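re: ur question from earlier - yeah i can do the single chain one, its not a big deal. heres the input i used so u can compare w yours
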Amino acid sequence: MTDRIEAAAAELRPLLQEFILWAPDNAPGSDPDLVGPVGLWHRLIARDDVGLWKRGDLRTVLLERMPQVVEDPDAAADGMIPAVRAYLTFLSSTGRLSPGSASLETLLAELDEVEDDFVDAMEDTIAERDWDEEEDELDEDETDEGLGDFEPFADEIGALPTIRLRPDTELAEAARRVTLIAQARDLALWVGTGRKVGEETLLTESEVDEAVRTLGLPDARNIWNLWNLAIDLEFLAPDGDDTVSVDSDTAAWPFEDDDDVLDAWMLGLHSLDYGDPELDDDDLTLALSGLTRALLIRVLLAGGTRPVSSLREELAEAAAEYDDLGADAWAAAGDPLASVLAWLTGYGMVTVEGDAATLTPLGTEGLVHLLDDEDIEIDARPAIDAMTALDLLSFSADMSEEEADEEFAAWLALRDPARAASELLEAAAEEEADALVRVQAASLVGSLGEAAIPAWLEALKEPSLRPYAATHLTQMDVEDAPEPTQADTHWLILDMWTISAGLGRPEFVSSLHDIGPAQTLIGLLDVIWKVHHPHIEELLDLIGETHPDKQVVKAAKRALFKARSGR
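and the output i got, formated as tokens:
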């Protein structure tokens, strides 16, 4: 899941960077930063091509998805529509609107159509968040987080060894076998279209009995949790004041597309709270709230497997400490972990063999997402055998040198050096705007020696990698290898500046001083603007803003003008 989002963001990033450079001169009243979420979710839920926009896409993204994901609804209400209008104009005017897209006129007309509804949706989101914030403040004042609070374990979670995540293909296959999703699907299909529901009791006793028989359940105890799960999964939805209907896609579960499967599974992830025991007394039920999460986090901290008997003992003690009624609630529930483990196994997150409860790969993935939702840091990475070259390069950026070397050695052990070199350079070529990935890839491939020569020769065809390939091939005295040109050297300098700019202004200015005295830098600026580097304009702009020498600032501004007018 995270792989899919990261891949979409990487695909979109160069386009957004070009739009950011285009906007000041062509759409000065727009805020380019507001386009990112729209472009990302268009790619995730509407089209596989970031440049393909058809009628209906704007309504889907702006009205269905943005209210759920937008971080600042105030800013979105004020500026997102103008920003998207500018973005669509940019795509059309620069030839980046893919063949098969609706015309710009059609897209802008649709944008006008949804504008009022979008603003209303943002205002509703603002109102809901204000209400939620008030409730959160009350909760903080009056109650604690319950048994399922992860925060007290944050330090232990952060100290865990690296958690290895399985690839999406394996996770999707496991999700297709989840029993509870299949039962929620069957319940939704039984509900059908336009089923009337009651105000106090959604279904009559006879309807409940019929549903239980249809689903093959032993009794009706779980029927309402399945009903709620069907809603969470969007299999079932209200379609009137007193009617509910099955979604048209529900019968297709388990879906063919892995991403669709994992998206659905993730929609139901928070249903794990349905595993908490439900008792006749509401106060006793509340005393055990969060028990399912409490079990999960303790299994994780134990390395992924823990005896149920020890969990039962520790959680009974935790419940008694958490609430004055905890001990009574535990006794009243009989075996409080029975419903917890039944739901977790049914949702594919835990297996129980004998006395051992074990997190599944799907459960580990889900728990990592839950921790991320709570902003609790955990070292989670793809398993070595599932790690792509781009994964390796991306994660290595945040590691110590020693740890990055260990990760590379483990990854390299699963492939021959020639193949490793090709994979790394291909990954770097896909990320033309990411100088850090490119530099890391060149460094790793450079360590592979002569085995990497075929990959370096192939990399000569990629403009972003040619400077590195020519340099390394020359250093290895490869016959007929091209000598690095002045343009190649300039590209390497621009990559260095790009990386230092990401570290902060002091580091960036220091990298400028590394070039030499002011006159040397001015001479470089007079020619480096000609290089077609993805960050050339923003780097020249930054030099003009940060360098202490006025003559350098003038040279940078002059070079920026030439770069913009010479393209």
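Residues 139-143 have pLDDT under 50 and may be disordered. not sure if urs matches, ping me
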